[in-house]
């Protein structure tokens, strides 16, 4: 009898756990990308070097997914420079202003806005 009453609780727990994952898996919001712009290509390289450890392919990893959050440019730059919450901050010596501009362009391109 206990097994029968535990079954709905188990189903509810599995449903709750399945809702915790991101809906995005491997494919950016705008689909596969072709990068012809050298600025966007630089942004991709810097993103892979500095950001992809926590945001793999822009998805949730150690940090939240960012390929489905259309934040304005100034907020992205503020977050990178000041590192709110658990995110580290990146100084201008670590990520140059030109590289940060390129990261923003890469994120916009990834979302299909670039």
Task: List its salient traits.
single chain, 4 helices
Report what the structure shows:
This protein has one domain: Cytochrome c-like domain (Cytochrome Bc1 Complex, Chain D, domain 2, Orthogonal Bundle). The chain is 48% helix and 0% strand. It has helices at 2-19, 38-50, 73-82, 97-110. Helix 2 crosses helix 4. It is globular, with a radius of gyration of 18 Å.
The string of secondary-structure elements, in order, is HHHH
Helix content: 40-55%
* Number of strand elements: 0
- The value of Rg in angstroms is 18 Å
Q: What is the approximate shape? A: globular
Q: Total domains, how many?
A: 1
Which CATH architecture would you pick? Orthogonal Bundle
Strand content: under 5%
What's the tally of helices?
A: 4
Structural class assignment: mainly alpha
Termini separation: 59 Å
The CATH superfamily appears as: Cytochrome c-like domain
* CATH top-level class: Mainly Alpha
In the CATH scheme, what's the topology name?
A: Cytochrome Bc1 Complex, Chain D, domain 2
Indicate the mean pLDDT: 79
Main sheet, how many strands, which sense, barrel?
none
Poorly predicted runs? 14-25
């Amino acid at each position: 009898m206990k097994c029968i009453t535990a079954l709905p609780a188990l189903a509810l727990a599995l449903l709750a756990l399945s809702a915790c994952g991101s809906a995005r898996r491997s494919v950016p919001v705008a689909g596969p990308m072709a990068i012809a712009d050298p600025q966007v290509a630089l942004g991709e390289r810097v993103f892979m070097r500095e950001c992809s450890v926590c945001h793999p392919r822009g998805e949730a990893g150690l940090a939240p997914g960012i390929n489905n959050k259309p934040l304005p440019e100034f907020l992205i730059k503020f977050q990178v420079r000041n590192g709110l919450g658990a995110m580290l901050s990146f100084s201008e010596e670590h990520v140059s202003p030109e590289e940060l501009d390129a990261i923003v362009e890469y994120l916009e391109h990834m979302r299909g806005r670039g």
